[in-house]
Amino acid sequence: MAIEVASEQLTVQSGQPYGDGGDPRRITKINLGPQHPSTHGVLRLILTLEGETVLECVPDVGFLHTGIEKTAEFKTYHQALTLTDRMDYLAPLSNNLGYSLAVEKLLGMTEKIPERAVVGRVVLVELQRIASHLVWLGSSALDLGAMSVFLYCMQDREMILDIFELVSGVRLMTSYIAIGGLAADLPAEFVTKVQQFVDHFPARIQEYHNLLTDNEIWKERTIGVGILSQQQVIDYCLAGPIARASGLDWDLRRDMPYCGYDRYSFNVPTRTEGDVYARYRIRMDELTESHKIVQQALHALPGGPWRVDDPKIVPPPKHEIGTSMEALIHHFKLFTGGFRPEAGEVYQRIESPRGMLGFYIVSDGGPRPYRMHVRGPSFVNVQALPLLMQGGMLADVVANLASMDFILGEVDR
Amino acid sequence: MTEQTTVEEQQPEPLPRTILDDLRDLFPAAVQATASFRAEATVVVALDSLLAVLAHLKEHGYNYLEDLTAVDWPEREQGGRFDLVYQLLSLASRQTIRLKTQVAEDEPAPTITGIWPGANWFEREISDLLGIEFSGHPDPRRLFMPEGWQGYPLRKDYPITGYERGSGSGANPPVVHQYGSRPDQGPGANNNAGWSPLAIAPAAGTRAKEINREGDERASQSGQGD
């Protein structure tokens, strides 16, 4: 808003503020992206500007379309798991969880998942939420000119990625939460490593607050920018931190609990302002809440089996394959033909770091999903961008983009 | 699939009887079937009363459109080729309901952007990838695929390798693919020369085995087409 006042003053003084023939009402069309660092991927925005005011914003997506839903129809249920990592690549474990829960529901074995897997999954996805929010925090601060926050965030995210590497051998595309439980047992050092992070993190949250929350420049750039009303949130199918920043008190972990979330005590932060700053505060509060859940789940983590004891669904232990004929047969059948859930359709929703993530899987009784549709939270977040942009300033476009926290891999699939 | 009426798990019926009764009473001709699978309720309604049913559900608590997608059933004999699938959620009562309707191949479906503006991109995605037209849609451009793309990738008869890498015979006819209006990519321009990934011909037999969905029949397909 300060910019608008400044340019008006300039008009009064010189009469020719823009140096292009003196018409401040000239309509300009610009492309933001697809290769622009602030678009966090390959998103193209076609902006129509009048001076510095955005009249129209048309998002253009599809640059990362890789046909994941089509590919899944040609993979067995176990194979399709790896595709889910590649959609929301900042929260692959959340995608793994959504997909695994959906297939388990299809198989009717939701209740049979062993306790160690159920609790371990919660520890992992909440760590994933923290890691994803840290990337969001760092990159949105970077977009608005606060570079050091990014470096701090990456440092903490490294600790979480180290934990993922410890459990799965992979830092990003883990495929670790698998159908029937986990892909491998949680190693012995897991609890110590997570405990180290849990002890370390609260001081860091305070540090981020010190850097940004009361920072005058940060507030100047974010307060009152990109306001979404609660009605718009519902009309445009938005959820997650964006909806909670606009006053919609809705969190699937509390309201439609899955994976044993009803056992943990945590708050669902909500605000009513609906602007970029509110979305920032919500995600900051969610860091604290996720930290709480990790702590509780870690203390509740039991020993015992970490995947269902059903050789038709999960592969047999490696050591049995050399000695047991049945194990060898099961292994062979599972990896050549997969398993065949009965015909039916399920929809599984989870609270991903970006909002409601839904997996709709249709089975025709065959070894591959007949149809898999993913309702990506980023998809609806990008759709809502024009609501934020139109009528705002060009300089706020980047603040709005950052606050919606979308991943183009999940938009385009 | 939709004809299944068994409740698999001993969980409370998620659909309040009143809403289902309401629908049956208010739209006697519309409700074609109901099903419950894994404690999820599905209602199949006729296409012509879809808008009325959705508006009624929105007024009676199901105010949140969670997901909208479509499924291709090319071999289905009765009803249309496609299922449009609407996932509705009631934020107040935490109930969900799945609404399905059948659409034939050349039959336009009504847009629901008047009820939920957020359905805009969901419908664009469906018409882009499955080729269902939504009448009255405010922005009926393709969403992911380039303008001028031939075919609808999520249809069951669209090969997973795409047409462009097809051999030019049988089920994989070659399709001239237009990228857009850039002069170096227009008709007649040699836009596949050299670097374009579309110019890379598939090695013989490499992709054919993936075309068949049934795992145990894969061997019989290899070598075909290429």
Task: Describe the protein.
The complex is a heterodimer of chains A (413) and B (226). Chain A is mainly α. Chain A has 18 helices and eight strands. Chain A has a three-stranded antiparallel sheet with strand order 1-2-3. A three-stranded antiparallel sheet of chain A has the order 6-7-8. Chain A has a two-stranded antiparallel ribbon with strand order 4-5. In chain A, helix 3 (77-85) runs antiparallel to helix 4, helix 5 runs antiparallel to helix 6 and helix 5 runs antiparallel to helix 12 (276-300). The longest helix of chain A is centred in the first third of the chain and has 29 residues, at 115-143. The radius of gyration of chain A is 23 Å and the shape is globular. Residues 1-19 of chain A have low confidence and may be disordered. Chain B is an alpha/beta fold. In chain B, 17% of the residues lie in helices and 19% in strands. Chain B contains five helices and seven strands. Chain B has helices at 17-26, 50-59, 119-129, 208-211, 218-221; strands at residues 31-37, 40-45, 64-72, 82-89, 96-103, 109-110, 134-135. Chain B has a five-stranded mixed sheet. The radius of gyration of chain B is 21 Å and the shape is globular. The model of chain B is unreliable at 1-9, 176-187 and 189-226 (pLDDT under 50). Classes of the chains: A mainly alpha (413), B alpha/beta (226).
* Distance, first to last CA of chain B: 35 Å
**Widest sheet of chain B: strand order?**
1-2-5-4-3
Helix-strand string of chain A? HEEEHHHHHEEHHHHHHHHEEEHHHH
Please tell me the overall pLDDT of chain B. Answer: 72
